[in-house]
Amino acid sequence: MIGGGLLLLICLAALAAPLLATHNPYLGELSDRLITPFWNSGGSMTHPLGTDSLGRDYLSRLLYGARISLIIGLGTAAISGIIGLTLGLVAGYFGGRVDMIITYLISVRLSLPTIVVSLAVVQLLGGSLNVVIMVLGFILWDRFAIVTRSATQQIRSQDFVKSAQAVGCSTMRIIFKEIAPNVMNQFIVIATLEAAHAILLEAALSFLGVGVQPPTPSWGLMINQGKTLLFFKPWLVTIPGVALFVLVLSINLLGDGVRDVTAPEQRN
Predict the structure, then answer these.
(1) What is residue 135's three-state secondary structure?
(2) I need a surface site. Which of 10, 47, 63, 116 has the fewest CB within 10 A?
(3) What local confidence, expressed as pLDDT, does residue 263 receive?
(4) Is residue 142 a part of any domain in this protein?
(5) DSSP string, 76-99
(6) Of 203, 236, 234, 201, nearest to 218 (Cα)?
(7) Is the dihedral of CA 115, 116, 117, 120 positive or negative?
(8) What would you measure as the largest C-alpha separation in the chain, in angstroms?
(9) In this predicted model, what pLDDT tens digit does every residue of 208-249 receive, in sequence order?
(10) Rg (Cα) of the chain, in Å, rounded?
(11) Is 47 within the bounds of a domain?
(12) Range of the domain at 213
């Protein structure tokens, strides 16, 4: 409930960004550069969280940055979830050579360092929001496939699956109508974890300068732009850093809660 509540607040803030933001997040005034937040001496409620080195309002960029993080998390989880769910269902149901081939693909994927591959591909294709979502979506499917494959192997021997086979149901119907609904609880939990993972990866890529490009208000990019002034203006890094921490924590807490609700026997 705590994770869901925090995530709901962040989602509402992101949706209401045009209403809550007091300034244009892309435009700034050089005369207003590096204004300190309101709780420090010299701060002003005109810019409650201060401004960056280009005079852009930090609160406005933080609100619009939440949109970027949520879009990347949801988009990546959707793409990787579809790939991993399909491969896991097929491998777990058919077994044999099909399972061997898909298991080999999973092993190849697990042998590749995620951040290094992401850096190389994004650098090659050019950093943008769509490219980052597609690259992360095609990289983070392995956990979906592993969990779905294991769950499918257990479910395919159940009586209701054998009954569907006995009455002549097609293979596609059995996989997607009988088995898939019974693995959705594990799928949802993995989706929350991978969404949080994707948000952190995007922040890392943007911090390294190869992810979402300026002037897009990405939290990782905000941390990158503020790191040179860390010892003099630490709030340039701590504000987006804390926002990123709260978002990832809320998603992980929500995933843990969903796991406990859908699988009470796994509670500690």
Answers:
(1) helix
(2) 116
(3) 67
(4) yes
(5) HHHHHHHHHHHHHHHHHHH-HHHH
(6) 203
(7) positive
(8) 77
(9) 888 888 888 888 888 888 888 888 889 899 999 999 999 999
(10) 22
(11) no
(12) 61-266
Model confidence at 108, pLDDT cuts 50, 70, 90, reads: very high
- pTM here is 0.86
Q: At what angle do helices 129-137 and 58-94 cross, to 10 degrees?
A: 30
Q: Report whether pLDDT(122) > 60.
A: yes
Residue 34 has pLDDT above 60, yes or no: yes
pLDDT reported for residue 63? 93
Helix, strand or coil, per DSSP, at residue 51: strand
Residues 113 and 53: their CA atoms lie apart, in Å, by 34
Cβ 74 vs Cβ 235: under 8 Å: no
Cα 244 to the center of its chain, rounded Å:
11
User: How far from the centroid of its chain's Cα atoms is residue 125's Cα?
Assistant: 20
Find where tokens 């409620």 sit: 45
Q: What is the pLDDT of residue 268?
A: 52
CATH number at residue 251: 1.10.3720.10
- Give the pLDDT band of residue 31 (cuts 50, 70, 90): confident
Gap between the Cα atoms of 192 and 197, Å rounded: 9
pLDDT of residue 91: 92
Tell me the one-letter amino acid at 198.
A
Tally of CB atoms within 10 A around 268: 3
Amino acid at residue number 193: L
Please report whether residue 34 resides in a domain: no
Report the 10 Å Cβ neighbour count for 193: 18
Beta bridge partners of 51: 57
In this structure, the chain runs to a length of 268
Question: What is the identity of the amino acid at 156?
Answer: R
Domain count, the chain: 1
Assess if residue 31 is contained within a domain. Answer: no
Dihedral (CA of 260, 263, 264, 268) sign:
negative
